[in-house]
From TrEMBL:
Pfam families for this protein: SEC-C
Superkingdom of origin organism: Bacteria
SUPFAM superfamilies associated with the record: Sec-C motif
Protein name as it appears in the record: SEC-C domain-containing protein
Species per Swiss-Prot/TrEMBL record: Ruminococcus hominis
């Protein structure tokens, strides 16, 4: 048994620098296919409260424990109650009860179009809602600068005076 937690073991495997670029690409390609299949199952019945030990939930989706740890690492921020992924063992009780809007937005943030583009989302959100969530997520990372008031511009207080003769006088 390793001294590392399951999460540390997963990350050591997933980000193993000793593997070649091709090996890492193959690893992630296989993982993303598995991840997509799990999401397809989860989204078929989004209100189902999937709970159990890590080992039981992994078996439910036909995965080994390590792959399920990787999946939990990705979905944990979208859950209504986060799992203790840093310290979990095979017998730790976990849940996959997710916030639908948050999960959709997190998939957009991760640029995982193979996930937020799944047809199962059509049964959960209408097109308008998906567009709104997409916009909200994209705008959340955008920094907007307010238009700077010029000295000779009209004062925003509505006095009719130039800014430099009104509210900008004391600056």
């Amino acid at each position: 048994m390793s001294d590392k937690s399951l999460l540390e073991q997963w990350r050591a495997t997933a980000y193993d620098q000793s593997l070649s670029k091709t090996e890492l690409e193959n690893f992630w390609s296989k993982y993303f296919t598995i991840e997509k299949d799990i999401y397809v199952e989860l989204l078929k019945n989004p209100d189902e409260e999937v709970r159990g030990t890590l080992k039981e939930v992994a078996a439910k989706y036909g995965q080994d424990v390590m792959t399920m740890v990787g999946f939990l690492d990705g979905i944990n921020d979208s859950l209504k109650v986060a799992n203790p992924i840093e310290t979990m063992t095979e017998d730790t009780e976990i849940n996959l009860v997710f916030d639908k809007e948050l999960l959709y937005k997190n998939m957009i943030d991760a640029k995982a179009d193979w996930l937020y583009g799944l047809p199962q989302w059509d049964d959960i959100f209408d097109e308008e809602t998906k567009k709104r969530l997409y916009r909200e997520q994209k705008q959340s990372g955008t920094i907007r600068k307010e238009k700077k008031i010029g000295r000779n511009d009209p004062c925003p207080c509505g006095s009719g005076k130039k800014y430099k003769k009104c509210c900008g006088r004391n600056i």
